[in-house]
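Two proteins were folded this term; both appear here.
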Amino acid sequence: MAAELTIVVPTYNERENVQPLLEAVDQALDGMAWELLFVDDDSPDGTHQVARELAATDPRVRCIRRIGRRGLSSACIEGVLATASPYVCIMDADRQHDEKILPAMLEKLADGGTDIVVGSRYLSEGSTGGLSKHRVWISRIATLIGGLLPQVRVSDPMSGFFMMTRDFFDAVVHRLSGKGFKILLDILVSADQPMQVAEVPYTMRQRDRGESKLNALVAWEFVSLVVEKLFGRLFPRRFIAFTLVGFTGLFVHLCILWFMYRHLGLLFFPSQALATFTAMTGNYVLNNVFTYRDRRLHGAAFFRGLLSFYIACAFGALINLALASLLYDFSFPWWLAGAAGAAAGAVWNYAVTAVLTWGGQDVDRG
């Protein structure tokens, strides 16, 4: 019997959770036609091996092993595209999502008139459960930021647990960024037509196996997604990321300029030059990790890239120094002169380094 519901589960190092998740879903959806599709990003712990062993004896289990590709959102998209079920669910492998609400979510979709059903921790009957106060605080802030996007009208836009109709997914898939870990937020803000959203409360469990994937890269990708959705029609995605890194560099630049010029009493020009060089180096490292993570440079290529970055930014740095010195000589405040100089070469630096630094090097696609 063909599956009515496909549950897509993106995985990375979740070997210990595969079997327990299958048993829990089997119990929750007893008597229903469903399948469990694991999309594994070539986990070093052999998650795909466990999933395939289960698939060999249980036709309801399937596994896609992705080589050279990473990311929760892109894994979810690829998984949904590999199914034919009229309803699809996105669910984590870590057992923090309550599989017992799956029938209620499916019922809301099957009744018609609803495009997507979100499992919410923030409805009156829901709860963040065993999450630490630190994680709850991060989740609340992310939810507040996500709420800045005009299309978001749900209590838990950061939820990783939701179900939707295939027709709705097919209508929105071409506009998804496929970046980051918050695929629901991406879907909600990418729909170009009115959508009907329902929510089902659930209590989030505490992870008892494996490790959380929350890190600085996840936070960066979330911020990048929000900024891209707000301004993506005006600027390329990489330029937005490049600019966000640039703001970090600007902060470093001003801190060093203050320390050298105001605290140590050095002349403005050498202080500005040292601040520029330090910020430029920091920007290269951050852009290599975040902006161009799909073209990340390693080993000798990293240092060749750094040299090309310096060369490419040299003209921008000259503009930076010339403008900053000119403004300072015209009695502009030191901080305004420094900031204006640092901002002047941003577009040049982005356009040139995209080609010279990351466009022509051997890259790591992993």
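Next, the second protein.
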Amino acid sequence: MNDNAQAKRPLVAVVDTTFSRFDMGTAALNELGAFAVRVVRITVPGIKDLGVECKRQLDAGADIALALGMVGGADIDRQCAHEASLGIQMAKIATSKHIIEAFVHENEARNEKDLVSLFDDRTRKHARNAARMVLDPTGLVAHAGQGLRQGRRDVGALRS
């Protein structure tokens, strides 16, 4: 592919943390490799740093960002996750671009094997959704109301 064609591909910013117990960034990169997108990866210390780095990447030309982080099991960790999420929301509004927030809460898992599964599944599905959003902005309409989940099995749609 020539440089001009490569430059026309949407740019996805993958922003992950050193705090996470799972390499969410690599999982996202592996998933995004199946799509016609360019990727930049930045790693920050913790989830409260995600919002500003996502905004920096969006301001620098990224079309969408993935904010990937782990939330510990303590009360203070959940409070920090809420604050981080608010920062991400502010960055979305400030840039008028999407930031797909993929947080895994350590206390969601039954054990470490389940935690790894949650990390991997949630990260990959959110990465896939980010790519789809920039490649085909109306493409997710076909999946509306289907009870799709990231991290667990889909629950399915309700029927009237």
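The radius of gyration is 16 Å. The chain has five helices and four strands. These notes refer to the second protein only.
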